[in-house]
Design brief:
This protein is mainly α and about 300 residues long. The protein has helices at about 5-25, 30-45, 60-70, 80-95, 120-135, 140-155, 160, 190-205, 230-240, 255-265, 270-275, 280-285, 295-300, and strands at about 170, 175-180, 185-190. The chain has a three-stranded antiparallel beta sheet with strand order 1-2-3, with no helix packed on it.
């Protein structure tokens, strides 16, 4: 039997979910993550005691964020602060608390975000693709190759790859429709090698009636539930190469980072990289500016020297 505390918490979460879905238009995956932080905070603050929103203070929030940073090493969760601000804005807007605690929530320094993302050289990218083409233990090589090629050539995120529908490919005009992050949709040119790889997969491997382009190998050949399959495919392929093994969390976006980094090293502008990767924020693209060593040299200030070249 549910306790009064459980019933009250579930009612609050239901209202919050509706707010996130209807008023903010967030994806279900993001809503789930935001609500998970709601649960973690309320458990941290109240424990076994009844939830009492009126007793929450700014200090409680700061201590919770500090607890997360200390308990999860290295701290990589990007949405915790935004989710907490969202939750307390919701509480204030719906008059469940008297003070807007969202305005006092501090940012968290994420040292890992300062690193340049793990990436492969162009030769390593081709080595990885060749491993996928020739991996003898895999019965669906053509599908796996086409999926990874989309990530390598167009910088697609893994969820974007598995979201592609058969009708998203405009063969006549050489374009592909991308169902991007945050509900944004884009059309992008379809390179010849990707088109050939997808056509090869459709004609010689693909089975089933699903309108999703990429389907599972087992009957009834349904769409993938999530993008975890691409992590598995990439890790299996990496084992058949001489490429230095990246840390696990970086594998899913490894080819996207590689594309951006290699474009920078070829002299592409940040605007070109932003358009290629379909970034919505210029700040995201600026991360790759640190790879442009020659460009950074042009803006570096001269080292202060005394007469004779000595400090």
């Amino acid at each position: 039997m549910k306790t009064l505390k459980t019933q009250s918490r579930e009612k609050l979460k239901a209202e919050y979910r509706m707010h996130l879905s209807r008023q903010r238009g967030l994806a279900e995956k993001t809503i789930y993550k935001y609500c998970s932080f709601l649960d973690r905070f309320m458990d941290f603050r109240f424990g076994e005691s009844p939830d009492d929103l009126s007793k929450i203070t700014g200090l409680d929030i700061a201590e919770f964020l500090q607890y997360l940073v200390v308990s999860v090493q290295p701290f990589r969760e990007k949405t915790v602060v935004s989710s907490m601000r969202s939750f307390f804005r919701f509480l204030f807007q719906h008059e469940k608390i008297e003070t807007n605690l969202a305005v006092g929530i501090p940012s968290i320094t994420r040292k890992c975000a300062r690193r340049i993302p793990y990436h492969l050289t162009p030769d390593h990218v081709e080595e990885l693709l060749e491993a996928l083409r020739t991996l003898s233990t895999c019965s669906w090589k053509k599908r796996n190759y086409a999926m990874v090629l989309l990530m390598a050539r167009l910088g697609l995120r893994s969820p974007e790859v598995i979201a592609i529908q058969l009708d998203d490919i405009d063969w006549r005009n050489g374009e592909i429709y991308i169902r991007g992050k945050g509900g944004f949709h884009d059309k992008t040119p379809l390179p010849q090698d990707i088109g050939e790889a997808i056509a090869d997969y459709i004609m010689h491997e693909r089975i089933g009636t699903s309108r999703d382009l990429f389907v599972t190998w087992h009957i009834p050949h349904r769409p993938f539930k999530d993008a975890a399959v691409l992590n598995y495919i990439l890790n299996q392929a990496l084992k058949n190469t001489n490429i230095p093994t990246p840390v696990p969390y970086s594998v899913s976006n490894m080819l996207r980072h590689s594309l951006a980094t290699n474009l920078v090293q070829k002299g592409a502008s940040l605007e070109e990289i932003s358009n290629t990767l379909r970034h919505r924020s210029r700040a995201t693209t600026l991360l790759y500016a640190r790879q442009d060593i020659n460009g950074l040299r042009t803006i570096a200030l001269p080292w202060p020297l005394k007469e004779g070249g000595q400090l």
